[in-house]
Write a structure and sequence with these properties.
Elements (H helix, E strand, L loop, with lengths): L18 H9 L7 E2 L4 E2 L13 H8 L2 E2 L2 H11 L5 H4 L3 E5 L1 H9 L5 E6 L8 H17 L3 E5 L1 H7 L5 H16 L8 E5 H6 L4 H13 L2 H8 L7 H12 L7 H4 L3 H4 L4 E6 L3 H11 L8 E5 L3 E2 L2 E5 L15 H9 L9 H7 L7 H9 L3 H13 L4 H24 L3 H8 L9 H26 L1
Parallel strand pairs: 5-6, 5-8, 6-7, 8-9
Antiparallel strand pairs: 1-2, 3-4, 4-9, 10-11
Helix pairs in contact: 3-5, 7-8, 10-12, 11-15, 12-15, 16-20, 18-20
Length: about 450
């Protein structure tokens, strides 16, 4: 058996623990820490040799972010006037950097914008990819602000030895249609593919910021953050500056204007999965030195693999994922084979109940079932042993079939012309932030007066 070492799983990528290596480590009872990078995600191995699920509380400590607690959720609802998204309510969006400051600025009527992205590694996205975009759409509607979506075909080309640049660009074009089908507002959304935008006629300001950030970033910083070594290609070392540049409003003068002194003050909120945080730690370190506002982040957990909670869905592993192009029959089959938290026998299950913490169909319901009361009812029945694994899997398959089916219908009407409109550099609509803030303050004042009147009547 091959020795487990820190050799990368793929050429040009940082050291990682892939699923086969984790299994090997488990069989040898070798303790390994969890691995969370932009290039690899896997749970660790404990002292008994057991492969364990990702510990998100530990990630908060390791990365130095802050937990989204009940007080912040209440402030979010008070400031925005919107109920927190189900992912926020259930702790699936769990961590942040400076979300509290974004709420302060929003409450005062200041402008902000959203930024998220996708590394196109396949021609169809899976439901794990759709979750961050669905959440981003929610934030766009709540804050009523512009959104920039970056498709990093160049990054995937740099990191994946078997993919050509043409492959990655083709995937980006297909993924753009998938993203649009989530339901984004074309009047407020700009999507760009790196190789098209950077090499096109509108990338001048963007490229300027790439150079400014690049000059501020050392090789040692990149090595320390990403685990790169001497075998990584030079393009990989340079790419973090590109991903950072998108977080600054001055990179897009056709959206935000050419008054760079004022535009540089516009803050950015980045909803993303937690594995993307290393990119933006570098970005935040350099922002103030360049006269920019540090971007804020809001982190989501990973949708776990069908195989178990030790790793996330992977587009390169069809058996671990449910694709947005899957048929109802394929979804039912995959959920039927998903890792279960049920007991080994019907008798034991009725006696001990199901283990929702490790049951993949239940975990998927936490992501996709909107009704909190219905989800709690399912949890109680399954954990008490009243609901068996087969029934739970059938419920989960039905929810995902409805979710994916609705997506397929929306995607079917997205034409190449619609995609090209989203990809065209242009001005985007801005809400009147000052007027919105004043209106919300008037509404809160009315609520305070009504509450005071109620108290006086009761006295």
């Amino acid at each position: 058996m091959a020795e487990i070492t820190a050799v990368p799983d793929k050429p040009g990528q940082p050291p990682a623990l892939s699923a086969p290596l984790l299994a090997q480590a488990a069989s040898q009872s070798i303790v390994r820490e969890q691995i969370i990078t932009p290039f690899d995600v896997s749970g660790g191995v404990d002292e008994t040799g057991k492969v364990v699920a990702i510990n998100y509380d530990k990630l908060i400590d390791t990365f130095g972010s802050k937990k989204i607690d009940q007080a912040l959720l209440e402030r979010f609802e008070k400031v925005t006037g919107h109920k927190p998204h189900r992912l926020m309510r259930r702790g699936m969006v769990f961590s942040h950097r400076d979300l509290d400051l974004i709420l302060d600025k929003y409450e005062k009527g200041n402008h902000l914008f959203l930024y998220t992205g996708r590394g196109p590694s396949s021609d169809s996205m899976h439901v794990g990819h759709s979750i961050p975009f669905e959440f981003t759409k929610y934030l766009q509607e709540v804050f009523n602000v512009p959104l920039v979506i970056m498709l990093t075909d160049d990054e995937k080309f740099f990191h994946a030895p078997k993919l050509s640049l043409e492959d990655c660009h083709k995937f980006a074009l297909q993924n753009a249609i998938d993203i649009i089908a989530i339901g984004f507002d074309v009047k407020k959304t700009f999507i760009f593919i790196d190789t098209d935008f950077v090499d096109g006629g509108h990338g001048g300001a963007f490229n300027k910021n790439v150079r400014l950030i690049g000059k501020r970033t050392t090789i040692n910083q990149i090595k320390g953050t990403f685990g790169f070594g001497d075998s990584n290609n030079i393009a990989e070392f340079g790419f973090p500056a590109m991903q950072s540049a998108t977080a600054f409003a001055t990179s897009f003068p056709f959206i935000f204007g050419t008054n760079t002194k004022q535009v540089a003050k516009i803050p950015c909120l980045i909803p993303c999965a937690i594995d993307q945080d290393p990119y933006f730690r570098q970005c935040r370190d350099n922002a103030s030195k360049l006269g920019f506002v540090k971007p804020a982040l809001i982190h989501a957990v990973f949708l776990p693999s069908l195989r178990g909670a030790e790793t996330k869905m992977s587009a390169s592993d069809p058996d671990s994922s449910i694709y947005l192009s899957d048929t109802d029959k394929q979804i039912a089959k995959k959920i039927g084979n998903a890792f279960s938290g049920g007991q080994d026998s019907r008798e034991l299950h009725r006696q001990l109940g199901g283990r929702t913490a490790v049951d993949i169909p239940f975990q998927y319901l936490k992501f996709f079932l909107e009704d909190d009361a219905a989800l709690e009812g399912i949890r109680v029945r399954y954990e008490s042993g009243d609901m068996e694994s087969g029934e739970l899997k059938k419920l989960c398959a039905g929810v995902l079939q409805e979710y994916v089916g609705a997506f397929r219908k929306r995607r079917a009407v997205i034409t190449g012309e619609v995609r090209d409109l989203f990809l065209r550099p242009r001005g985007l609509e801005w809400g009147d932030r000052k007027a919105e803030a004043e209106m919300r303050e008037r509404e809160r004042e009315i609520e305070r007066l009504e509450a005071r009147l109620a108290e006086l009547r009761a006295a």
